[in-house]
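Input (Extracellular solute-binding protein family 1):
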Amino acid sequence: MKKTIFLVFILMIFVFNPLVLAEEEVEITMAVGTVGIEQELAQRAAEIFEEENPGVKVNIQAAPETSDERRSVFLQHLDRESPDIDVYQIDVIWPGEFSHFLVDLNEYGADDIADQHFDAMIENNTIDGKLVAIPWFTDAGLLYYRTDLLEEYGFSAPPETWDELEEMAEVIQAGEREDNPDFWGYVWQGYDYEGLTCNALEWIHSHAGGRIINEDGEITVNNEQAIKAVSRAADWIGEISPPETTGLVEESSRVIFEAGNAAFLRNWPYVYALASEEEKAVAGKFDLAPLPASDEGESSAALGGWNLAVSRFSENKELAAELALFMASPRIQKMRAVEGAFNPTIEELYEDEEVLAANPFFEDLYEVFENAVPRPSSQTGELYNEVSSFISENIYLALNGDIGARTSLEYLEIDLEDLLGFETRAIE
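Output:
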C-alpha cells in the first residue's frame, strides 16, 4: 500500500510539473515599431524563429510610434541596465549614441554576413570597430514627380539637375495655376526638425559641399558649395515652393502632392503606397527618381532606416544575437519587402523577382539606397541630437530670410565647434 501511494505521488509530480520532464522555456523580448503592418510582420517572423528553436518564446513588444518617444523610452531602459528588452529596433542615427549599451554583433557571427548588406549602413552601424546593430530595413530621400504633367508640358524625363528641376517646376506651375491657384512646383520639408537636417544634407552633398561633418570628424560645412546649396533652397520658397514650406514636414508635404497640388515632392519611400491608393488624385500619375544634383556634384539621398541591436544587459545575449541576425536575414527581409514594402538592406533582394513584382521602383532606385549619405551620427555619438538641432536651426533661419546662407553656415560652424571641439577644414 505504501509503495502504491509513493508511486502515485511521483506520477503526480511529473503530470503537474512538466518542467521535470523538459527544460524551462527561455523567453526573449524584442521591441519593434508599429507603422503599418510592421508589428504584425515581426510577430510572424518571431513565430518562425520559435518553430525552428524549440523551447524559445519570443515576445514582440510594441515600441512608441515616433522616433523621439522611442529613443526616450529605450534610453530609460538602458540607463537603468534593465534586462527586460533583449533586442531593440534602433534608428539609423542612434548607433553612436547607443553604442556603449550594445554588444558587438561581430562576436556573434555578424562579420560573416555583413557584406550582404549595403556598405553605407554597415559603416553607419560600426562604432570604434564594433558592429553595434545589424541593418533591418532602409530608407533614402527620393524625388516624386507627376508623369502626366511632365508629358503634358513637353518634358521627356524627370530632372537630373537642380537647374532642370527649377525650370520644369516653373513651367508646370505657371500652366497649372491657370486652373489651380494652389498649385506649386516643388514641395519638401522645411520645418525646424530632423527632416530639415536630411534635406540640408542632400542639398549640400549634391552640390559637392561635403557631409557637414566628414568621416574623420572634421567640420566642413562652411564652404562655398554649401553656401550655394542653402541659398538655392531659400530662393525656392515663394517661387516654386509654398511660403509655408518652413512649416512642412513629411506628412503635410505628402498631402499637398497627393491632392494634386504639386509637380514634384521630396520624401521617403513610404509615400509610394499611400499615394497609389485609388482615391488619391495622383494615383497612377506619378513615379520616383533620384534627387537632382548640381553640375559640380552628384545625386544625394539622406540615409534613413532602422536596425536591430542587442542590449549588453540581456541575460541571453547569444540567443538575442541569433534572433537579431535571423530577423535581418534575406529570408525575413524578403517577406517584409513583399508583404509590407519595407526596403531591404540586402543587395541581392533588389534582383529578386517577387520583391520587384511587389515594389517595381526598387530595381530602378537600387543605387540610391546603396549610395545613400549617412548623417553625422556615428562621428558625434550621444551629441548627435544637439548637432542635428544646430543644423536645422541655422538652416531654418536662412530659409526664413532672417539671415543669409553664408551667415547661417558661419553660425552653424561656430555652434558645432563649440559643441564638439573639432577643428574646421573647409572643402577645397
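The chain has two domains: 11-132+303-370, 142-302+381-420.
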